[in-house]
Amino acid sequence: MSGYDDRDGKIWMDGQLIDWRDANVHILTHALHYASSVFEGERLYEGKIFLSRKHSERLLKSGEMMDMPIPYTVDEIEAAKQAVVEANNLTNAYIRVVAWRGAGEDMGVSSARNPVRMAVAAWAWGDYYGDAKMKGAKLDIAKWKRPSPETIPTSAKAAGLYMICTMSKHAAEAKGCSDALFMDYRGYVAEATGANVFFVKDSDVHTPLPDAILNGLTRQTVIGMLKDKGVTVHERHIMPEELADFEQCWLTGSAAEVTPVGQIGEHTFEVGALTREIAEDYEKLVRS
User: NCBIfam families attached here (predicted)?
Assistant: First the structure.
């Protein structure tokens, strides 16, 4: 397969559709040097982007939190995504919307005079964790910790927050794992590199309180689904030693969807009935 910079198709960039290979930026783009970038990852199912407007709304909020006002409205972002889907004749795909500080008059840490740019790309993408949906993903435990909200806007979907995710996922893959689980700055269980985590014990579901992690849209959707089923959901701080007591585990995210977890470090989990039920129900929901 060709690299992501060498494909046929169209990408929406700064208000117009351009050829995929022409969607480039200057080497002195501020985001490349100082991580002044926010993004959204979304899934297109049967021609419809799941929770599309919520993603667009969150993109704008992330930009605000990064002191980087994005010069497009929700409706304009929605139209851009639709244009990309139609131009590339896609029915089921992954959508990536990214906004960043471009090259301009500033080339230090300050970038207030540089334009905020935006692009939308889409491509066919299968299961994020491969065959883990059947047998359960295997997770390493990251050596890095998710940062305090006092150090960075942890509720923004910002590129800089993913630096330790890349490092941790590389380390996990080198050990034969699919991903890595983070603890937060206080030592509580936090999230995977690009997904929220859920656990099952005695028919109740437990998931980390999103006070230092991204409150994922898929996470919110799954919590709503569980409550509709009458399942008790505990959003709380979870200590790492509790991992030994949980029976089931799964990950949620726009890319990950609902993916069962079979192992985290030395701890193993069954791909149980509730995990499979939620995964199947989520699959039905996004395609309804």
Answer: ilvE_I, PRK06606.1, PRK07544.1
Q: How many helices (H) and strands (E) does the chain have?
A: 7, 15
Give the CATH class of 132-286.
alpha beta
Give the model confidence (pLDDT) of 241-253 as tens digits: 999 999 999 999 9
Domain ranges of the chain: 10-123, 132-286
Q: Do domains 10-123 and 132-286 have the same CATH topology?
A: no
Residue 201 annotated to the active site: no
Fold (CATH) for 10-123: D-amino Acid Aminotransferase; Chain A, domain 1 (3.30.470)
User: How many CB atoms are closer than 10 A to CB 27?
Assistant: 8
Options 81, 133, 138, 157, the catalytic residue: 157
CB 98 within 8 A of CB 37: yes
Residue 47: strand pairing partners: none
Query: Is the per-residue pLDDT at 210 higher than 80?
Result: yes
Entry pTM: 0.96
Cα–Cα dist 63/149, whole Å: 16
User: Which pLDDT belongs to residue 1?
Assistant: 65
